[in-house]
Amino acid sequence: MLILAAMVAAALDQPPAPVSGSARASDGDSFRLGPDRVRLLGLDAPELSQDCFHADGQSWPCGRAARDRMARLLAGGPVHCRPEDVDQYGRLLATCQVSGHDIGAMMVAEGLAVSSGRYWSEEANARRDRAGIWAGDFDAPRQWRDDHPQGRGLLGWLATIGL
């Protein structure tokens, strides 16, 4: 009986199966891949309506720039993702590649996302080179979301009040 229980638990604990195909960007760290919604692991990109600032203080739409770059990367060929889990919104949490290149690593290396658990060397290089968001000032995406909860719809609003 214990062996059967262990086998069932192991089967339930398996990550989702790999997914591949054509993808469409939602923002700088998530996209649709066929019927699946995918959130890249190990990075956090500026929110779509988030602005950042150049060194001279001029604002620029860094959230849109991140989404646009993601769209160009996804257009480079079939996307291959290895999901590790599913989040509370039903999105696959995955690492993904296009033409053999890690999409998350490219977004962080180009200064269009910050590292959040992976891609530390890519972030260090982007900081050093003052690439993308590192060329001026910006709010970390997590901080920006906390400061702007109204843009996330009813579910986001409920989350901010602890429901």
From TrEMBL:
**Domain annotation TNase-like: ranges:** 27-136
Which Pfam families does the UniProt record give? SNase (PF00565)
Fetch the SUPFAM superfamilies from UniProt: Staphylococcal nuclease (SSF50199)
InterPro entries reported in the protein's UniProt record:
SNase_OB-fold_sf (IPR035437), Staphylococal_nuclease_OB-fold (IPR016071)
Superkingdom per UniProt: Bacteria
The name of this protein is Thermonuclease family protein
Q: Tell me the organism.
A: Devosia oryziradicis
